[in-house]
Amino acid sequence: MKEFLTEIGGKEVRTIVGKGILGEALSSLKGKTLLVYPTSLKDKVKGVNNEFLRYEIQDGEQAKDLERAMEIVDFMFSQGFDRGDNVVAIGGGTISDVVGFISSIYMRGLNLVIAPTTLLGMVDAAIGGKNGVNFKNVKNVLGTFYQPSLIVADTDFLSTLPQQEITRGMAEVIKYSIVLDKEFYDFLAMNQEEILKERNHGVIEEVITRSIRDKLNVVSQDERETKGIRIVLNFGHTIGHAIEAGSSFSVHHGLAISVGMTCEAKISEEMGYSEEGIVEDVTWILSSYGLPISSEKLETKIDIEKAVASLSKDKKVRSNYVMMPLPTRLGEWRRVDMPLETLNGFTRQCLS
Ligand SMILES: NC(=O)c1ccc[n+]([C@@H]2O[C@H](COP(=O)([O-])OP(=O)(O)OC[C@H]3O[C@@H](n4cnc5c(N)ncnc54)[C@H](O)[C@@H]3O)[C@@H](O)[C@H]2O)c1
């Protein structure tokens, strides 16, 4: 088991990573506690802290809806929840997003605990305090920054996660290693079998702990994305989001950012921002985890014009420049204000 504290915006966030730790980790909560989890995890949550109230929902993107969120609020209100009480999100990124949102607005904020159950949730979605719900079918329109007091990554949950969810979650893990943590890159370069095939407990625990530490270290320096530091977490995401748009959102996020990281590393090397060899490092590690490094490897055909057109709507565009984090060498990065025209050209070339 691994445990550490991070201070973010004056709040202490405790992280615990380990096997079979959820019940014990929650047992110290004081006040009323509501567990929110998806129906698919009903059996797994059965034995956990039977004294707690429970709220079961269907997960997936349809759960991240304002109306669904208000139904949970309604339940909490009927049970008399107040600011001293706790809400625990047990599930993937959709559950942590919706429960994070509710906990931040209910009586201006009650104690939030997140227990992610997917690899993506453990290494990314549950980490960093961003939450969001969709509104009128537009993703994450409503959301806040709100840190949990406790993150419990219980690796027992991963035993039922389909293989492809592990592979796809690894894209975000690899991202941290490329732009933030060379030592982690070297670790990942030696442990593909242990992670994907054997699902070695100790190795997976290390992967999750290191990813959470790397992400929280960035978030603690720039919680609200105002200092130009948190943007590093966007590596691979500018072109990744364009790929998602060009596939009408049928390509999985992890696969899209895998191709996105490849394209963005190529831009960095071709424009002279990085040392030679970064493209080889990026493509080698992604391929070794079975992740795609070109649009041909994606199951869906990408509409390149649609993908390129979406770049101008990127949240990081400022007067025809796009703020992008690019790797300079393994474990290091810099911010580049990329002319939109240049980015359009590179994207078209990389996806053709
Ligand atoms: N707030 C953030 O910073 C942030 C970051 C990245 C992603 N996200 C959000 O996260 C969401 C995606 O998260 P996700 O990939 O975890 O998806 P998800 O929550 O939809 O879960 C994926 C599927 O896995 C199932 N599942 C969950 N745990 C399981 C387990 N232990 N065993 C078997 N099946 C299990 C779920 O029932 C679901 O069908 C998106 O909505 C995305 O916007 C948020």
TrEMBL record:
GO cellular component term, pick one: cytoplasm
GO biological process terms, semicolon-separated: aromatic amino acid family biosynthetic process; chorismate biosynthetic process
Keywords: Cobalt, Lyase, Metal-binding, NAD, Nucleotide-binding, Zinc
InterPro entries: Dehydroquinate_synthase (IPR050071), DHQ_synth_AroB (IPR016037), DHQ_synth_fam (IPR030963), DHQS/DOIS_N (IPR030960), DHQS_C (IPR056179)
Keyword Metal-binding: yes
SUPFAM superfamilies, A to Z: Dehydroquinate synthase-like (SSF56796)
Top EC class, one word: lyase
MF annotations from Gene Ontology: 3-dehydroquinate synthase activity; metal ion binding; nucleotide binding
Location of the 3-dehydroquinate synthase N-terminal domain: 55-167
Database matches in Gene3D superfamilies: 3.40.50.1970, Dehydroquinate synthase-like - alpha domain
Domain (3-dehydroquinate synthase C-terminal): residue spans on this chain: 169-317
Protein name, as recorded: 3-dehydroquinate synthase
Organism: Sulfuracidifex tepidarius
